[in-house]
Amino acid sequence: MQTTLKTPVxxxxxxxxxxxxxxxxxxxxxxxxxxWFKRVDIEVGDTLVPARWDAAERTPLCTRIVNRAGVxxxxxxHVMAGLAGCGIHNALIxxxxxxxxxxxxxxxxxxxxxxxxxxxxxxxxxxxxxxxRTVSVETPNGWARLExxxxxxxxxxxxxxxxxxxxxxxxxxxxxxxxxxxLCDSRTFCRLSDVEAMQxxxxxxxxxxxxxxxxxxxxxxxxGGLRHAxxxxxxxxxDALGDLALAGAPILGHYTGVxxxxxxxxxxxxxxxxxDGAYRMGMxxxxxxxxxxxxxxxxxxxxxxx
Length: 306
Description:
By secondary structure, the protein is of the alpha+beta class. The chain is built from seven helices and 21 strands.
């Protein structure tokens, strides 16, 4: 069955790019509601923004959604990954500004709070998007692909000049709480050489060594170093799961990303939904439901950092 949270949960912090203080409340919602954001700092007009692929703008450094009135919410990928990874299908997310708080730069604080609150089953079946035909997109920098598979799974490859990151590849079947155990605590990362350029563009104004992994050549500058030797590629997979969640339902298929980012994953979802015969939507029987990312999730499996 579809799920929602048992009770609301509040997050306070700062936006990674805006540097603005932000409060966000994730509230339970009824069946078939889906995931919506509500800008509570705006008093007039349409303040509801759908967490949906066709509401996303193609921005390179975060995922930003905007409604027809021009109201937007940005950097939603980590909380979306947390919701998807915990198997939460319905929620109303109230936020008092334009950007989700970055917290520690991963999805772990969201996941921990969701699992501590607990989930409630709703009187409606879960539907999943089954990939029935391979679709792919490509840019000069990389490519991404979705292909048929019985279970949700992902493979990602990155390659950076900085030796602290270098070339990394990871594959993962996203079942039985794998997202919670393997990916949710991996933080966003950047190169020191990129920080000044981003800040000159009005980005990364809320970034610190505590909410992002900053590397310089072969050095990791953030206190405590890495949480995983391949934390960078794990975080890219976390981002991809959050961006794929904008499909509006769990995806049964295999995602491959090679130097892919937010815009490319959004392009891939557009290709999926506009290609004849590329997918079908179906009710989940108990066996299929057991394959979805939220099935088998347990708070005891949370990484210690959360």
